[in-house]
Amino acid sequence: MPDRPAASPSGLVCVAWKTVRKNSLQGFADLALPKAGLVLLECSYHEKDGSAWCNPPAKEIRDASGARTGWRDCASFVDKAARRAWSDAAVAAVKEWRRTHPEAEEPAEARGGGFEW
Fold first, then answer.
1. 102 found inside a domain
2. Which of 26, 63, 93, 95 has the most CB within a 10 Å radius?
3. Residue (of 72, 12, 73, 77) closest to 38 by Cα position
4. Tell me, what CATH number does 40's domain have?
5. Dihedral, 95, 32, 47, 66 alpha carbons, nearest 10
6. Distance between CA atoms of 92 and 76, rounded to whole angstroms?
């Protein structure tokens, strides 16, 4: 990460966004913890029935025939409360990114590319 973004009160900052709309999925965010120098890539951001939540990066699980059977988180939390606190902070970071980067709301294909760097 070349420049460290200013941290939000939670310490979590959205540094990139890719709009992908399918069911509750609204897109994928790269979320940074600037003090740690850590960026979690492609965290999913969802909205449904007035609620919003984020999931950490995940890996597809496929069976022997190659069919997707589910997802496995690539990060874990000590308990449900910690996961919820992270999700709440991630949602706030994504909402701030989307507020300050309205051009990023167009699907990536319409902008001619993927993530905004």
1. yes
2. 93
3. 12
4. 3.30.1120.40
5. 150
6. 20
